[in-house]
Amino acid sequence: MSPRTNDNATPDADKATPDESTVGAMPAENTAEATPAEDATGIAPREDAEADTDTEDVDTEDTEVPVHDTSASEATPAEDTSQAASGKDSTEGAPTAASDRNSAPVGADEDTAGVAEVADERVAAVRRLSQSQRRWRATQLGFCAAALAVAMTAGAVVLGALRDGTTTPAVAAVSNGVSPQLLASGDLDASILSLQAHLRTQPKDFSGWATLGLAYVEQARTKGDPSRYPQAQEALNRSLKLRPDYDPALAGRAALAAARHEFADALKYADLALKQNPYSERALSSRIDALVELGRYDEASKAADLADSRRPGVPVFTRYAYVHELRGDVSTARRVLRQALTTATSRGDISYVTTALGQLAWSQGEYHSALTYYARALAADDSYLPALEGRARTQAALGDRAAAIKGMEQVVQRYPLPQPLVELGELYEARGGAGDAQKARDQYTLVNAWISLAHAYGVNADLDTALAAADHGDHKAALQAARAEWARRHTVHTADALGWALHVSGHDAQALPYARRATATGYRNASFLYHLGVIEQATGHADKARTALKAALDLNPGFSPLGAAKARTALKAAQ
Fold first, then answer.
1. How far is 88 from 394, CA to CA, in rounded Å?
2. What does the alpha-carbon distance between residue 337 and residue 205 come to, in Å, rounded to a whole number?
3. Which alpha helices (DSSP H) does 19-79 contain, by range?
4. Cβ distance 341 to 357 under 8 Å?
5. pLDDT value at position 223?
6. Contact 498/485 with Cβ under 8 angstroms?
7. What is the DSSP string of 482-537?
8. Which runs of E-coded beta strand occur in 125-247?
C-alpha cells in the first residue's frame, strides 16, 4: 500500500465549513445513534406527512447497500480474500445505540456496557453470516472477522488520526440548521448526530447531504472500517440528485472513490468538481492523489504545481512533497514538509506534518531524527496513531523490540489495518518466543479478515492482498491479486508487488522487469531495493544483486523486522 495516499490525507478540520469539511477532527470512541427505520444513509425518515412529501420529492435511486447504524456496522466475512460476502444478510441484527464520550457525559460503567453491547452485536452478526458460508474457510474467516469487529469496536477510535485536508471554497453555501461551530469542534460523531437529526427534518438540504457523505468517508477511514462507505455513497448521491454539479458533493465522490482505491473514478470526480470550482482544495488534493496512484507521475507533478498556485497550504504542501519523494528528490520533499510545518497551527496539522517528516526520516535510515519528529507529533496529540505506529517501527529498527511490539499492539488494537498487522506479526516472528509463532499467524489471519470486509463494502484491496500473501500467505492468491492490480494501474508500488509475487511463485525471469521498474523513478525505498536484489540474484545477475542489496541496507538497515535480516543473509551469499 502506498505510504501516503488519500487514505492518509492531510488534516485541516479547524478550517472546515459544512459543505466540504470532513466534519470535525477527532472522532469519539462510539458513533452516531441509529433509529430502527434507518435507510442506507443511516437516517430514519420523519413520520409526519411533510417529511414523507419531502422524501418523495428527492426521488433518489434505490440502491442495494447494507443498512448500518454509525456505531455498530456489521463485519461481513467472505469465502476467501477476493470474494465479498453475500449482501442479503447484511441487514441482520438490530442497530445498537452507543454513547459518545466526547459529546455527552457518561459514567464509566455505562460507557463500558455500551461498548460491550456494540461488540457483542457485531460478533453475533458475524457469526450468523459465517454460518451461511458453507465452504471450508467460512468458519475460519468468521472467527477472524469477529475478532476484527471486536478490535474495531471495543478498541478506541482513532483520536486525532490523519484527516482529509480541505477547506471550503467561498462559493459553498452553509447547511441551514447545522452549526458550523459544531462541525469545526473536532467531534466527528456528534457532528454526524447533528446532521442526521437535521436531515430528518430538512431532507432537501443538498449541502447537508454532501457534508454527511464526507463525514461517513472520514468515519470509515479513521476507524479502519469500510462498512461506512455505502452510507457515504448514498448521502453524496442524494446531494447530487438535489443539486447536480454541486462541487463539494463531486469532491466528496472523488474522496470516496480514492478511499475505495478506485482511482480512475477519483480523478473523474475531481475533474468534475474543478470544472465547477477551480479552487476547491479537496478536489485539487484528490486530483494529485489519483494521478499518483495511477502512476501518472509527470501529470501528478503538474497537478501539484497547479494546486500550489491556487491553494497553497498544508494539504497541498504534503502532496507536493510526496510527488518529489517518489521521484527520488528527498531534499525537496523534506524542505517542503518543513515549510508546511511552519504554516501548521492546529494540533491535527502539526501531528500530520511532523509524522510525515518522521516517515521520511525513517525511510532514509535517520532513526533518531524520526523519533524526534514522532515525539513532536505526539506532543501535539498523544493518541495520534500514525505517529505511534511510526515510533514503534523506528524502535524496531533501533533494536528495541519490546517497545516496538508494545507500541504496535496498541496500534492494531485500535486501527487493525493490513500494514500494522503484518508488521506486528513479523515482530512476533523475529522475537521467536513461546507462543509467538501463533501470535504472528493470528495477525496474518486478521489481515485476511480485513481484506474480506474491504471487498464486501466495495473497496479494492488487491494490493493489500498481494503484499500480505506474498510473504505470509497463499502465493497463488498473491500473484492473482498483483496481476489484477497491475491491470488497473502502473505505479512503483504495483510494479514492486507484482515483481515480488512473481518471484515467490517461482517466475523470476518474469519478475525482473517489474522489480527494475519499481526503482526506475529514483524512489528511495529499501524494501523495493531488497526485492530487486533478491530477484537479480535469482536470475544470475550477481553484481547487480550485491549493488541493490547493499543499497537497501545502507539506506534503511531496519526497513523490516524480517526483510532486513533476509537482505543481510542474501548479501552475504552474494559476496
1. 44
2. 38
3. 49-58
4. yes
5. 72
6. yes
7. HHHHHHH---HHHHHHHHHHHHHTT-HHHHHHHHHHHTTT----HHHHHHHHHHHH
8. none
Residue 44 confidence (pLDDT): 57
Taken in order 415, 416, 417, 418, the sign of the CA dihedral is: positive
Low-confidence ranges of the chain (pLDDT < 50): 1-36, 47-185
Q: What is the pLDDT of residue 40?
A: 67
User: Residue 434 burial by CB count (10 A; 0-12/13-18/19+): exposed, middle or buried?
Assistant: exposed
Q: Confirm if 205 and 199 have CB atoms less than 8 A apart.
A: yes
- pLDDT, residue 509, reads 98
**DSSP secondary structure letters along 431-489:** H--TTHHHHHHHHHHHHHHHHHHHHHTT---HHHHHHHHHHHS-HHHHHHHHHHHHHH-
Calpha distance 515→534 (Å, rounded) = 10
Q: What is the predicted pLDDT for the residue at 243? A: 97
Which residues, including other chains, have CB under 8 Å from residue 572's CB and lie 6 or more apart? none
Contact status, residue 156 vs residue 414, Cβ threshold 8 Å: yes
Tell me how far apart the alpha carbons of residues 319 and 297 are, in angstroms, rounded to a whole number.
12
- What are the cell numbers at 52? 414523507
CB atoms within 10 A of CB 110: 11
Reduce the secondary structure of 333-380 to three states and give it as a string.
Answer: HHHHHHHHHHHCCCHHHHHHHHHHHHHHHHHCCCHHHHHHHHHHHHHH
Residue with cell 486530483: 287
Long-range contacts of range 368-372, CB-CB < 8 Å, 24 or more positions apart? 370/394, 371/395
For residue 83, the SS3 value is strand
Question: For residue 293, what is its C-alpha cell?
Answer: 496512484
Task: With beta carbons less than 8 A apart as the criterion, state whether 167 and 17 touch.
Answer: yes
Backbone angles phi, psi at 95, to 5 degrees: -60, 145
Identity of the amino acid at 185: S
- Give the three-class secondary structure for 36: coil
Cα–Cα distance measured from residue 291 to residue 437, given in angstroms and rounded to the nearest whole number? 40
Distance from the first to the final alpha carbon of the chain: 32
> How many C-beta atoms lie closer than 10 Å to residue 438's C-beta?
9
pLDDT of residue 354: 97
Cβ(70)–Cβ(219) under 8 Å? yes
Q: What is the dihedral of CA 313, 318, 321, 327, to 10 degrees?
A: -140
How many whole angstroms separate alpha carbon 552 and alpha carbon 546? 10
Q: How far apart are CA 54 and CA 570, in angstroms?
A: 68
Largest CA distance in the chain: 81
* Cα dihedral sign, 61-65-68-71: negative
Q: Which residues contact 260 (CB under 8 A, 6 or more apart)?
A: 226, 229, 458, 459, 460
What stretches of 103-217 adopt beta strand conformation (E)? none
Q: What's the pLDDT score for residue 226?
A: 85
Say how far residue 372 (Cα) sits from the centre of its chain: 25
CA distance 562 to 279: 45
Q: Which residues contact 221 (CB under 8 A, 6 or more apart)?
A: 7, 161, 162, 164, 259
